[in-house]
Write a structure and sequence with these properties.
Three copies of one chain form a homotrimer. In chain A, helix 1 packs parallel to helix 4. Chain A is built from five helices and 17 strands. Chain A starts with a strand and ends in a 6-residue tail after the last strand. The first copy, chain A, is 17% helix and 29% strand. By secondary structure, chain A is α+β, with helices and mostly antiparallel strands. About 2% of the residues of chain A have low confidence. Chains A and B meet through strand 1 and strand 2 of A and helix 1 of B.
C-alpha cells in the first residue's frame, strides 16, 4: 500500500542513519511514500522535535505514519509506543515527543504541573512496542530507529492492527508544555518555543490567547516593544509581530533575522499588553 | 498519476515547512513523485533560486511540475502564477524567479534594461493563480507555499487545465539577468552568477560567448589570471577555467575552493581576453 | 519497476546537482524509489563515502541499485564501474569507493598493503561502463554523475543485464582499509574511521577484534582512558566506549560530543588493552 511514512530525527543527513531506516522500511513496504519532516533536530532535543512535528503532522493524508526518533534513552528501559489518532499513527520512544499531538486532542492546555504520564484524551489509542517478532533481529542496543521503530512503522503502513505490536496503554509520557499565563500587572506572559531557519521567533501564544483589538496590542521581547500586529512579513520596518502559519504569535524582522537582531533564545519571555491608547 | 513534482525553496530543512507542503501535495495526488531541487536558497534570494532552478529543470521528464517558493512578498498583492512550456509546468510567485526559463525560450539574452514584465515568447503560456476553490482553506497570510502553491501544483500534476486556476497572462515579471558585454578594451566582461558548494565560481559567460581558439583565452578574476581553458577539474594546478555542466564558464581550484582562494563574491566581474600570443 | 535507487555524493543539497541526477533517472525509470544516503560527504573524500555507504547498503531490499558519485577524477581516464553482489548493484567511478563492499564479500581484512586492484572475491561481478548508447548525449566532461552514472543506474533498475553496459572486469580499484593490529606491548591498535554528526568516534575495531572479557578492556584515545564497555549511550558519565550499530567500537560522550571533548580526528590511533585487574 502506498501509505505515507514521515521521518523526524536528530540524526542529521550526513551519516546514512536515516537512509538505513528507509532501507528497512522499503524492505517491508516497497510502496511506502517516505517524506522527511526534519533530521536537523538538535541532538536529543525532545521539545524541539515535539514542536516541529506538531506544526506539520496535520497536513498529511489520513493514515499517514509519523516515525519520530529522538531517543536519548535508546537501549535503556524507556519503552517504545504507537499512538493512534483519528487521522494518523505515531511511532516513537515514550519520552514526551508526542506531547503536542496529545494536547491537540485534549482540547485544553497542559500546564507546567502535569510532568509525567496523564490519561489519554478520548479518541486516542496507544500501545507499547513489545513484540519482537515484528522487529529486525538482532536488535542493536544503540539504534532502535533502524531495528525496532522503522520496521514497526512499515508494518503499520501495511495495515497491521495495533494489538499485534504490544499491550494497550492508558497513558503515555508527556512534557510540561509552556502555557501562557497572566502576570501581576495584567500582561500575558508567554515564551519562545522555537526559532526557525529565517530567524523568526515562534512563541507559545496562540491566536486565541490574544486580547482584542489586535491593533492595540503591545508585544515585548528582550526590552524591544512592538505595537500592533502585522498581517504579512513584508509590512512595516524593523521588528514585527504576526500570527504565523501554525497559529502562534511570531516575532519577525522584515529583511533579516529577528533571532540575530534581538539575541533571543528558546525559553525567553514574551509579554503581551493591551495598549492603553497612549500610542495608536 | 505518478507525475514528478519538484520543490525549490528558501525554507531550509530544519523546520518542517517543506514537509507541510509535501503533505498537502500527497493529500491531493498520492502518486506524485516528489523531488527536492534545493531548500538552501538563501532567505528571499530570488536570483539564486532562479539560477539553481535553471540548471536543473530541463533534466526532468516531460510534464514535471516545478514548484518554486522563494516569496518575500507572501501575503501582499504580488500574484501567483503558473507558467507552461512545451515540456514542463512552473508554479511560483510572480517575482522574477522564472526569468531564466523565459530566457531559455526567448532565444535571446535579456539585458539589464527590461526590468519588469515583458511579453512572453512564443510557446509559453501563463495564468495567474486566482481561483481559491483549488486552494487550502483558510489561507494563511504567511505561508502560501503550503496553502496555495502546493495544492495548485498537485492539481496540475493530476491534469487539470490551466484555465481552471485563473486568467491568462500576456506577460510575467522578469529579473534583469546579467548578460556579458564588451568593455572599451575589447575584453568580454561577465560576472559571477553563483558559487556552488565546492566553491566553484559560475559566471554569466556561456560557451557560445567565448572567443576562439579557447586555448588562447585569458580569464581574469579579482586580479588573478588564468590562461587557456581546461576540460576537467583534475587538470593543471591552482585556478582553472572550464565550461561547466550547465554550459557556463566556471572558475575552479583543483584541490580546494576557488571561492575561498579568490575571495570572489556573486556579482564580481570576470574579464575574458584573447591572448595576444605572449604566452602559449 | 519500482526498484530502489540510492544516491551518495559529495554534492551537497544546495545546488541542484543531486536533483539533476534524479530527473535523469526518473526520465528513464519513472517508478524508481529514490533514497538519499548522504550528500554531505566532504568534497572528494573517497574513504568517507566508502565508509558511510558500507554502514547502510545492507539494510536495503534485494536488487537495490546504489549510485555513488564522489569523483575527483571526473572527465579523466578513470573508468566507471558496475559491481553486482548477491543482493545489490553498485554504480560508481572506479576509485576505491566500493572497497568496504568488496571486503564484506572477501571474508578477510584488506590490510595496508593491497593498494590497488585485487581480484574480486567469489560471488561478485563487475563490468566497466563503456557503452555510450545508454548514456545521456552529449556527455559533459565535468558531470558524469548526471550524464553517465545516473542513466546507467536507471537502466540497471529496469533489469538490463550487466553485459549491455561494458566489458567484464576481473578486478576493481580498492583503497587500503585501515585494519587493527597488535603493537609491541600487546595492545590492539586501531584508528578512527569516521566521526558522525553526534560527535561519536567510530573506530576501525570491530566487535570480533575485542579481547574478552569486555568489562576488563581499556580503551585509550588521545591520552584519555575508558575502562570497560558500555551497552548504551545513556550509561555512565563522561566518555564511554560501546559496540555501535554497525558493529564497530565507538567512543561517545553521554551528553555531548566525544569529538569536541577529545579533539580527535579521523585517522587518530585508538589502543585497546586487556586490563590487568588493577581497576575493576
Amino acid at each position: 500500500m502506498g501509505a505515507v511514512i514521515t521521518l523526524t530525527t536528530d540524526f542529521g543527513l550526513a551519516d546514512g542513519y536515516v537512509a538505513a531506516m528507509k532501507g528497512v522500511i522499503l524492505g517491508i513496504n516497497p510502496e511506502a511514500q517516505l517524506v522527511d519532516i526534519s533530521h536537523a533536530i538538535r541532538p536529543q532535543n525532545i521539545p524541539e522535535a515535539a514542536f516541529v512535528l506538531s506544526t506539520v503532522y496535520s497536513y498529511f493524508p489520513k493514515c499517514t505514519v509519523h516515525l519520530v526518533v529522538v531517543d536519548p534513552g535508546v537501549g535503556t528501559r524507556r519503552r517504545g509506543i504507537i499512538l493512534k489518532t483519528s487521522t494518523a499513527y505515531f511511532v516513537a520512544p515514550d519520552n514526551g515527543v508526542l506531547s503536542y499531538v496529545v494536547q491537540d486532542y485534549s482540547g485544553k492546555e497542559m500546564g507546567q504541573d502535569n510532568k509525567q504520564s496523564a490519561g489519554l484524551p478520548p479518541g486516542l489509542e496507544a500501545v507499547s512496542i513489545t513484540r519482537p517478532q515484528l522487529w529486525r533481529s538482532p536488535v542493536s542496543t544503540t539504534f532502535h530507529g533502524r531495528d525496532i521503530f522503522a520496521p514497526v512503522a512499515a508494518h503499520i503502513s501495511l495495515g497491521l492492527p495495533l494489538r499485534d505490536f504490544g499491550e494497550t496503554l492508558s497513558a503515555i509520557s508527556l512534557l510540561p508544555l509552556p502555557a501562557p499565563h497572566p502576570d501581576k500587572d495584567g500582561a500575558l506572559v508567554g515564551s519562545i518555543l522555537h526559532i526557525d531557519s529565517f530567524g523568526n521567533l515562534i512563541t507559545s501564544i496562540k491566536s486565541r490567547d490574544l486580547p482584542e483589538p489586535r491593533q492595540k496590542v503591545t508585544v515585548e521581547i528582550r526590552g524591544q516593544l512592538i505595537t500592533g500586529l502585522s498581517t504579512t512579513y513584508a509590512e512595516g520596518d524593523g521588528l514585527l509581530a504576526l500570527i504565523g502559519s501554525s497559529d502562534y504569535l511570531e516575532i519577525s524582522l522584515k529583511t533579516g533575522s529577528a533571532h540575530a537582531f534581538t539575541g533571543a533564545k528558546v525559553g525567553d519571555a514574551v509579554r503581551i499588553r493591551r495598549d492603553k491608547g497612549g500610542r495608536k
